[in-house]
Amino acid sequence: MRELYRLVWLLALGLLSTGTVAAQEKKPLDLQKGRGGALRFNIPALIQDYDKNGDGFLQKDEVPPYLRDHFKELDTNRDGKLSQEELEHGAAFLQPRRRPSDVVFVLIEMSDCDDDCHGELQRAYDILSKLDKNKDGKIDPGALKAVRQQLHEERIDNIIQELDTDKDKRISKAEARGPIRANFERLDANGDGFIDRNELLNAAPERPSTKKEK
After folding, report:
1. What total of structural domains would you count in the chain?
2. 39 Rama class: left (phi>0) / alpha (psi -120 to 50) / beta
3. How many percent of the chain have pLDDT more than 90?
């Protein structure tokens, strides 16, 4: 049963992210177990299924839709076709592009496994419904910001509760663990040897740069 769930997750996150792949493909993906029982693509079967001219390669017009976005990356020798070796070396590109919101499809796909699965889908719906303040079917930016801040604060309060062994509402270096300890000096903005709630709150909104390096 666990292996079945893993297969559902792979297909739901991978195939459903394209929106229409399930309808476009006549044949299901041929998967096989790799090391440690992990599921991976059966490359020879993939070529056999889609090699229309029988030359042992996949031309761009032969590859299934979910591979076309990455054809250039897979075609390392730039000969306009994909060999078994190129597909094996480019295994990371065999997964279609995904969006974080595709997790909803996973929940729908698994909603009939038991009551808990249905409950998780209901929970996601309830959370998003609260963000629609005007009941117009759209997420309110102000509500989203408020809930985001609430989540930050709850996470920080949990960190302090876990690490603050002497209950003075701050974290000393001796109490710090994991990433808090590794980044202690940066988080301790005033340099007093302790990390308090405000210092963690100020650090929480930091995001890594999303600008692409030239």
Report:
1. 3
2. beta
3. 48
Bridge partner list, 82: 58
Residue 70 included in any domain: yes
Domain extent at residue 15:
2-94
> Using CA atoms, how far apart are residues 184 and 65, in angstroms rounded to an integer?
48
Distance CA 208, CA 22 (A): 35
Instruction: Return the CATH number at 43.
Output: 1.10.238.10
Last residue of a domain, one of 110, 130, 150: 130
Q: Under a CB-based contact definition with an 8 Å cutoff, are residues 121 and 108 in contact?
A: yes
Handedness of CA 93, 94, 99, 100 (dihedral sign): negative
pTM to 2 decimal places: 0.50
Higher-confidence position of 116 and 132: 132
Closest CA to 12 of 103, 88, 84: 103
Side chain identity at 210, as an amino acid letter? T
Residue 214 domain-assigned (yes or no): no
Verify that 57 and 124 share a domain, yes or no: no
